[in-house]
Amino acid sequence: MSTTLTGRPTARTSRPRMLRGLTWLVLRQHRTTVACVLALVVLGSLWIVYQRGQLIDLLAAAGWPEKSVPLPVVGEGYRNLTSLLTLLPGILAVFLGAPLIAADQEQGTAQLVTTQSVTRRRWLVAKLGWCLLITLVACSVLSAVFTWWWRPYRSVLGDHWMDASVFDTTGPVLPALALFLTAAGFTIGILLRRVLASMVVTFVFCVAAQTAWGMYRDLLGTPRTITYPLNGEFPAFLDDAYEVDRWVGSADGQLYGWGSCAEATEKAANACIEELGIVNNVFQYLDYGQMAAMQWSGAGILLAGTVALTAFSLWWASRRPL
Fold first, then answer.
1. Could you tell me the residue ranges of all domains in the chain?
2. N or C: which end of the chain has fewer CB within 10 A?
3. How confident is the model at residue 5 (pLDDT cuts 50, 70, 90)?
4. pLDDT tops 70 at residue 18
5. Which long-range contacts (CB under 8 A, 24 or more apart) does 226-235 make?
6. What's the whole-model pTM score?
7. Hey, which bits of 237-301 come out as E strands?
């Protein structure tokens, strides 16, 4: 007995993929790294939510805001969290950015890939694009969740809004700084072509860049100035302000250094004040209301640096042997 096929065999259709070709290949190559970063985001977000819940319970038990509470109301968990968020851009730059292309160059994968049908530029764009995308997503989520915690309770958390633990970890600064340092990492990797050397140099660059960023952060805003009587009380609304500089001044507007009349005796100090005609304190400051504009200005500068480094990396790698 025989069996005869009366119909044409149907071709086996594969399930359509959302990720195809080079994009799928790059994601599969870095699937472990992507999984680690996503796990970091999930665990970090849950940690922030948990710490925020603990803070709310503590403040509710103390009767805040109707009653004052001992400041700052923070624990070891909050300190560890802000430290990790501050270090996160550098960690991503060293462990994600620096080996991204350098590892392929060192192991010969870059030469293998670029001899196939995929062009070198397309391969580089896919690699750098995935790296920057996962960095942007991870840091944006963590920054948004931490900002959600910090902003309503900033008055009891202790950190000043201009501290690196707040300014660099809330709003757009965290993802922008992470993108810039990560772009610096893969640029260094492309230039040095060795993983270990790239990671070491990237680490040094991150330390130097974040130190310089902290030194010039106050230049992102335009300082405001207030004058009040020499013997008057310090204005209460300036308690949350960031001090840029302060002087003492005469009635005609002449300014002198804060310690101009810091004499050894009160009599000599009073004589100096009378001689110079000093009648006012002059205080130059940045207000908390300027924080958002300063953060977006800083993020714009960092993103411009990211674009410049990425463009340079593509130009350099597309014109030289990998």
1. 21-220+291-318, 224-289
2. N
3. very low
4. no
5. 226/282, 226/283, 226/285, 227/280, 227/281, 227/282, 227/283, 228/280, 228/281, 228/283, 229/279, 229/280, 229/281, 230/273, 230/278, 230/279, 230/280, 230/281, 232/281
6. 0.86
7. 242-250, 255-257, 278-286
User: Token pair of 126, please?
Assistant: 């896919």
By percentage, how much of the chain surpasses pLDDT 70?
A: 86
Q: How is the chain split among helix, strand and coil, in percent rounded to 5?
A: 65, 10, 25
Instruction: Look up residue 298 and give its two tokens.
Output: 């800083």
Are the beta carbons of 136 and 172 closer than 8 angstroms?
A: no
Average pLDDT over residues 212-232: 90
Strands, sheet with 242-250, edge to edge from the N-terminal-most edge strand: 224-229, 278-286, 242-250, 255-257
Task: Write down the pLDDT at residue 88.
Answer: 95
* Model confidence pLDDT, tens digit, residues 296-316: 999 999 999 999 999 999 898
